[in-house]
Write a structure and sequence with these properties.
382 residues, mainly alpha
């Protein structure tokens, strides 16, 4: 009995066989690749730290520092994640599945811990300490919020901002969205003009409205509103001055003016998503336009209304610029964020400032939880 010799192999098959013999068995770590990846990872970290140190101490031109910062920020982060991925590939297969998610999420968690979680905890603890942060004073700083007239008034004013501004901005934005949706021509132009104040900074908008509200004790009135009042034979009014509590309302108008465009854009997009056949069916059944709006349009866009409202509430809780620029918190226009800055940096009382910041955080927290809960409910429906 004779045996048939195996067919001759080609050069390519020989090279593939040789390469396969050099690779580690499937599912095991590759020590060489792991060592190279870790070495390059360490080298990237050293180069990045050296670049940061150079940028801190150099006297080079600003343009060069910006270029180096961009290179490190973009290329360095890209190389960092690429090498982490290569390092993970060199691990055993079972370990890769466990480690890989943390490799990509881990840096973000570290940054959140360092720049968000730690400052939040530190601020809460500081709220229970004295002005210099050297001795514990219990809950005195929190109790003082309700004893001090300006702090108590800032809480009341902020609550008023939380109710009035979102209600007016969302309500007016909804009206504009409905009206703009009915325009046959010029819808985009109208929306752009209404949205335009959103592109202005809070400080810029405050300066603009300061000219409108301007009040002169002597001489001619240069403010727009007081010019109209004088033209009508009325006495000029210090709109944002000694006119409590209406001066708070005139400050809120600035915020409403800026946020209405944002509400209109979001709600207009939601209105366009309402099925036209449902609206037509209601009209054929005899429903008036107001009934169609109240019973079909509003329930259909309720999720968008809630999202816009909660977003505005969060923005209002952080309001600082408008009050600081237009009144400086005088004449009963204090708000929580403005008081926090005053106590922290003007009065040099870290404990009281931290207590105010903690209260602001507590006020924002329920809105955030409610917003996240709404998002989850909508995702479950989809």
């Amino acid at each position: 009995m004779t045996t048939t010799p195996p067919p001759p192999t080609t050069q390519l098959e020989d090279e593939q066989t040789a390469a396969a013999t050099r690779l580690p068995p499937a599912g095991r770590a590759d020590p060489t690749k792991l060592a190279i990846s870790l070495g390059l990872l360490l080298l990237t970290a050293v180069v990045s730290l050296a670049a940061f140190e150079w940028m801190r101490n150099t006297r080079a031109s600003t343009a060069l520092v910006v270029v180096v910062a961009l290179a490190i920020g973009v290329l360095g982060v890209f190389a960092f994640y690429l090498l982490l991925d290569r390092t993970t590939d060199a691990l055993p297969l079972r370990m890769q599945e466990t480690v890989r998610p943390w490799v990509f999420v881990g840096p973000a968690l570290v940054l959140l811990t360092v720049f968000l979680l730690y400052p939040a905890i530190r601020t809460i603890l500081l709220g229970f300490q004295d002005a210099n942060g050297t001795a514990w004073v219990g809950a005195d700083n929190f109790v003082n919020i309700w004893r001090d007239d300006s702090l108590r008034r800032s809480v009341i004013n902020t609550l008023a901002w939380m109710i009035i501004v979102p209600a007016l901005a969302v309500g007016i934005g909804l009206v504009f969205a409905v009206l703009a949706d009915r325009l046959r021509r010029g819808e985009s132009v109208a929306k752009s003009l209404i949205f335009l104040p959103m592109a202005i900074s809070f400080v810029g908008a405050s300066v603009v409205w300061a000219f409108i509200y301007d009040y002169q004790v002597f001489g001619n009135q240069t403010g727009l509103l007081n010019g109209i009042m004088v033209a009508l034979g009325q006495d000029p009014v210090s709109w944002t001055g000694d006119f409590y509590p209406w001066n708070n309302f005139f400050l809120m108008v600035v915020m409403v003016w800026m946020q209405t465009g944002f509400a209109m854009v979001i709600l207009s997009a939601a209105i366009k998503g309402v099925p036209e056949d449902i609206l037509e069916a209601a009209r054929i059944d005899g429903a008036t336009e107001f009934q169609v709006f109240r019973r079909i349009t509003v329930p259909s866009i309720m999720s968008a209304i809630v999202v816009v409202t909660t977003t505005m509430i969060i923005n209002v809780l952080k309001i600082f610029d408008i009050v600081f620029v237009m009144t400086g918190g005088r004449d009963g226009t204090e708000v929580i964020a403005e008081r926090m800055i005053r106590w922290f940096f003007n009065f040099r009382n870290q404990g009281q400032g931290a207590a105010i910041a903690t209260m602001l955080f507590v006020l924002v927290l329920p809105v955030m939880i409610w917003n996240v809960k709404r998002f989850r409910e909508e995702e479950e429906i989809r």
